[in-house]
């Protein structure tokens, strides 16, 4: 799927550009690379002249902090990850809405063979230009075109930076999965899954909140590799795609009491990806900034291992399996595999000393608590003495 996407856009005049690392270069506004467009930010803003007008990439992304944060959804939905791969095509002042829409439709329905009747489209309220393209150029049935407000259909990279209205493509997994169409009260379910976002970049938001026009309208798109894989592999949960199936069955071997549908295994499989890629890209566990986000994700994974009855070191053992699965597409992972295992193991050794004791205290307080509340003092003690980040306690 990854190479089909890259080949399609290369065939349509796009330069294939390597994924950039997860730590954005010279960009203090962003914790992690959270989208394919991050490495092209200066091209959109007109600060640097791009050596090509069209690009395509498969970008490794982490959304575990800042404006786009999916950490709290992992383990609760079929479609969220802390680490995922984003397939994207980009135009730097070259084509705009019409070609972006035509390319996406051709790739999904003709190259990948997804039935048109399963696809729903959203556009920003007032963006009649995009709506007309979908209805008249593509021939989409009116019933499957939905107008949404800015919270859904205006994309911003962070609190500041390039931004613009967007049009999103959803896949309907059918009535066996709970959830309603985009814009409805039950849109948060997993039935209608956004698989591709087409952003029509036109503005820059400054730190004072001012919107100014960028030099030329641009296109930034992002399709979730795991989500589209689920569609093409005929499964309704991202954690059932081939790549996760192997990671999850590898995890299940470590915890013989668990079966592969266990949610904790999914969380662990998600977290080994983000943690390994973050370390490979130069982040080390620490008590602040990026390193603390990494530490929090590792500790969440260890807490899920504990929930499965584990008292031994286990997390670092998954590195080998991950490298086997993803080292081909991302050589940085195979090159750094020793560092990944050593770093995760020592982090695990530190936390295992206090995890068990801290969990006993936490569970006692949860049992005693009314309305799911525990006292701030307890959360602080868990943090201060037992190394429980507060979001781990909340989780
Ligand atoms: N930047 C947009 C997103 O992340 C499209 O790539 O959804």
Give a verbal description of the structure.
The model has no long low-confidence stretch (mean pLDDT 95). 44% of the residues are buried. This protein has helices spanning 2-11, 41-44, 97-111, 128-138, 150-153, 225-232, 242-254, 263-280, 289-307, 318-326, 331-335, 337-368, 376-386, 390-394, and strands at 15-16, 54-62, 83-91, 119-124, 145-148, 154-156, 161-172, 192-205, 211-224. The protein is globular, with a radius of gyration of 22 Å. Strands 1, 2, 3, 4, 5, 6, 7, 8 and 9 form a nine-stranded mixed beta sheet that branches. The protein is α+β, with helices and mostly antiparallel strands and 395 residues long. Helix 7 (242-254) packs across helix 8 (263-280), helix 8 packs antiparallel against helix 9 (289-307) and helix 12 (337-368) packs antiparallel against helix 13. Serine binds next to strand 8 and strand 9.
List the helices and strands and how they pair.
Elements: H1 2-11, E1 15-16, H2 41-44, E2 54-62, E3 83-91, H3 97-111, E4 119-124, H4 128-138, E5 145-148, H5 150-153, E6 154-156, E7 161-172, E8 192-205, E9 211-224, H6 225-232, H7 242-254, H8 263-280, H9 289-307, H10 318-326, H11 331-335, H12 337-368, H13 376-386, H14 390-394
Parallel strand pairs: 1-2, 4-5
Antiparallel strand pairs: 2-3, 3-9, 4-7, 6-7, 7-8, 8-9
Helix pairs in contact: 3-4, 7-8, 7-10, 8-9, 8-12, 9-12, 12-13
Bound molecules: serine.
């Amino acid at each position: 799927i990854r190479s089909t996407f890259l080949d399609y856009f290369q065939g349509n005049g796009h330069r294939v550009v390597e994924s950039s690392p997860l730590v954005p270069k010279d960009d203090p506004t962003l914790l992690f690379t959270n989208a394919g467009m991050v490495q092209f930010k200066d091209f959109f803003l007109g600060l640097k002249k791009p050596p090509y007008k069209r690009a395509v990439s498969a970008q490794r992304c982490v959304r575990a902090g800042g404006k786009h944060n999916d950490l709290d959804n992992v383990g609760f939905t079929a479609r969220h990850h802390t680490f995922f791969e984003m397939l994207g095509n980009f135009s730097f002042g070259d084509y705009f809405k019409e070609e972006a829409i035509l390319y996406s439709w051709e790739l999904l329905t003709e190259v990948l063979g997804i039935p048109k009747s399963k696809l729903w489209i959203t556009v920003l309220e007032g963006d009649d230009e995009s709506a007309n393209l979908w209805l008249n150029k593509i021939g989409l049935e009116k019933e499957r075109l939905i107008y949404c407000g800015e919270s859904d259909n205006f994309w911003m990279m962070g609190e500041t930076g390039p931004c613009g209205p967007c049009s999103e493509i959803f896949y309907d997994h059918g009535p066996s999965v709970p959830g309603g169409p985009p814009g409805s009260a039950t849109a948060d379910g997993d039935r209608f899954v956004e698989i591709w976002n087409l952003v029509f970049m036109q503005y820059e938001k400054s730190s004072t909140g001012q919107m100014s026009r960028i030099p030329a309208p641009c296109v930034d798109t992002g399709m979730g590799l795991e989500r589209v894989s689920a569609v093409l592999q005929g499964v309704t949960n991202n954690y059932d795609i081939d790549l996760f199936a192997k990671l999850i069955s590898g995890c299940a071997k470590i915890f013989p009491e668990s079966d592969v549908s266990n949610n904790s295994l999914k969380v662990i499989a998600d977290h080994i990806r983000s943690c390994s890629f973050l370390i490979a890209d130069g982040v080390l566990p620490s008590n602040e900034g990026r390193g603390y986000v990494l530490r929090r994700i590792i500790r969440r994974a260890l807490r899920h291992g504990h929930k499965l009855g584990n008292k031994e070191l286990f997390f670092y053992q998954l590195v080998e399996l991950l490298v086997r699965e993803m080292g081909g597409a991302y050589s940085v992972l195979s090159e750094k595999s020793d560092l990944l295992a050593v770093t995760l193991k020592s982090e695990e050794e530190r936390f295992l000393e206090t995890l068990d004791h801290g969990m006993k205290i936490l569970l006692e307080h949860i049992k005693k608590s009314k309305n799911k509340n525990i006292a701030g003092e307890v959360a602080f003690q868990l943090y201060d003495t037992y190394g429980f980040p507060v979001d781990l306690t909340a989780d």
